[in-house]
Amino acid sequence: PGLKAKAKREPRVKLKQLHWIKVNERKVAATIWEKMADEKVPLDLDDIEAQFAAKQIKDIKKTEEEAEGEEDAGTGPRKKKVVILLSANRSQTIGVLLSHLKMPHDEFRKAITSLDVTKLQPNFVAQLLRLLPSDQEVAALQSYTGPKEDLGAAELFFFELLCIPRLKPRLQCFVFILEFNARLHDLSENVEVFSYAVHDIKRCDKLVKVIEIVLAIGNYLNGTGPKGGAYGFKLEFLTKLADTKTADNKSTLLHYLVQYIDKEHPDLIKFPQELSNVEIGAKVSENMVDEISKFKKEIKFIYEEMNRPYYKSHAKTDPCGAVLEKFYHTAYHDMDVLEQNKKDALQMYKELSKSYGEDELKPDEFMTYIHQFSQTFKEAHNENTRKKEEEERIRKRREDFMKQMEQKERNAEARRKARAGPTSAATQPAPKSGAKPDASSDATKPASVSSKGHANAGQGEGEGSGENGKGPAA
Asked: pLDDT tens across 191-213, in order?
């Protein structure tokens, strides 16, 4: 039985809607969504409503351009102009190949017959396999009755090849043997990296907490609408957070999420660092299973080829069968180990995807969503940091500018006061009516002079001063 319908929160204003795909209530059990407590996440509702208020605009239907056809990468089939037995193009191509062959044709034939891995390089044999003569060319070569020495180098080389029994399957086995160790190493490494990526996601509790915050914000934005009250959402939505713009179109929901986490949960901001193997894990998982299946089929082809009646009946003259049998037993063991490691890794992924309610997602899709989200989250954090630093620089420049202006104003005021100082006496206001004329004049005299007597005190005082012998000279 599924969970009961989740309570929906109705915003106070109409907000932009998030177009996520809700996880079915019946599939929530035993997933990360079961323990989500998004309703307890302390959101700043006023800020959300201010940032993501919906505008009344006409619906715009987005259209996707689809490719009408694929361009032809090649130049199309070229008309073959036959020179002797092979076309000019074929002769030239074979000639280029032979320029890298540093041994006589008969020695080369023996190396192919015995699958001698010490004599030939993988690239040469693989290219030779692609250039084998067609049925038409084989018929032309076999019908030739003239002297062989009159033929070109390419025709002579093909004559040597056609003497080798089961040429094409023999070359296919040879190429596989030559490339086996390198391919086994690459496939084993891919399985290992994929396992590391699964472990990274499984152990990253911070990722789950970030997703919980996304769920909380999304449920509030969607309010009582059909997409509100979600227990969870499909992971693909994480890659589309930047599609939801703020009301002023200057930021996005992704940048708001990063800003919120940086402020309220700074310990979560570096969660992408814990997912270092997810990017390469997504890449290798895309073809990992198919490549291993192809590898396994080629080992089976070795087994089928070594059991052909021809090799049984020609065991004494053709060593190829014995070489294939010896190689098969070693390759089968290595393949068995690789197959088991692959099964263990896929089982771990199955448990992980089920815990996220995404058990139907292919490994490469699941990991690509996680990787893209972690990368865009990190980029948004860097952009927010740069914006914050730029705003701080602008504030600092403005503050410095205001200080400079204030200092200039103080300097100008000081200069005005300095210029006004020496002439202050000459610019004193006239005395008020009724005041004694000489009083203001005496007031400007030094205190030593004023203390000897006022000028308007009369001659008696002047004479008295003269009596004391201390009066000023006439």
From this structure: 999 999 999 999 999 999 999 99
